[in-house]
Amino acid sequence: MTAIHAYFDNIHRILDNVLKEEAEILEEASQMLCKATLSGHNIFAFGCSHAGLLAFELYYRTGGMATINPVRAPGLYLDIDPATMTSQIERLPDYGRIIAENQPIGPEDVVIIHSVSGRNTVTVDFALRCKEKGARVIALTSVATGRQIPSRHPSGKLLMDVADLVIDNGGCVGDGSIEIPGIAEKVGPTSTAVGAAILNAVMTRAVELVAETGQTVPVFISANVPGGDEHNKAMLERYKDHIFYMG
User: Fold this and answer.
1) pLDDT under 50 in the chain at which residues?
2) What is the mean pLDDT of the chain?
3) How many C-beta neighbours within 10 Å does residue 35 have?
4) Strands of 43-47's sheet, edge to edge?
5) Distance from CA of residue 81 to its chain's centroid?
6) Which of 112, 180, 189, 213 has minimal Cβ neighbours within 10 Å of its Cβ?
7) Are residues 121 and 96 in contact, defined by beta-carbon separation less than 8 angstroms?
8) Residue among 179, 177, 142 at smallest CA distance from 160
9) Do the beta carbons of residue 36 and residue 45 sit within 8 Å?
């Protein structure tokens, strides 16, 4: 078996386990997104460094919900050189609170936060401020990592300690999953591949739940198919009060 097969086998194993162990949590997360949509509230997604890739995966996305808003802040998305500054910035006290304070996050909104470790100060501060503003926080994290690695937040709390709902991504400590003979480091991180599958599944179920009510579902289609531009323009207009990424 090559490392290619080992990696695919491991992703399949984790996804199967997540579906088995987290099914009720995934359903609850989907219900939260559906409720926010039907009740006129807002949905946000946040993460630092590579964890933030999932916030980008969810927004302005073919086949995705038009109303999922990414939360972006300078220095947290590998948008600076040297890239190591991102790791330093996500440990800064109060920056997470500043980010949340400057977003239109309010009571009964839903905020999805992705962090494999959930240990860094910005992530925990951001979650705490969102909750203070009355929002509900869904954490996507590695529970195994949280149980073994201490928080960097002054409170000693991790993201999974402060979230309203915790989805375990089933990953291992350090995220690398494949051992290669002759090297000490594991390779093949799983959090992005598994996390994208988890959140897209939750989003898809939320769309299904909204559709069951008979309401127009805020879903984008590809701009590269006939009628795509017109459809997406209509979605942006219909849900403009819940979309904050159009400038």
Assistant:
1) none
2) 97
3) 16
4) 68-70, 43-47, 110-114, 136-141, 165-168
5) 24
6) 213
7) yes
8) 142
9) no
Flag whether the pTM goes above 0.85: yes
What's the Cα-to-Cα distance from 176 to each of 10, 47, 93, 172, 243, rounded to whole Å?
Answer: 11, 19, 28, 7, 35
Can you tell me the distance from the alpha carbon of 33 to that of 27, in angstroms, rounded to the nearest whole number?
10
pLDDT tens, position by position, 108-145:
999 999 999 999 999 999 999 999 999 999 999 999 99
Phi, psi of 80 (to 5 degrees): -135, 160
Token reading at 46: 């946040």
pLDDT tens figures, 31-57: 999 999 999 999 999 999 999 999 999
- Compute the distance between CA of residue 99 and CA of residue 94 in angstroms, rounded to an integer: 9
Is-contact 151 125, C-beta < 8 A? no
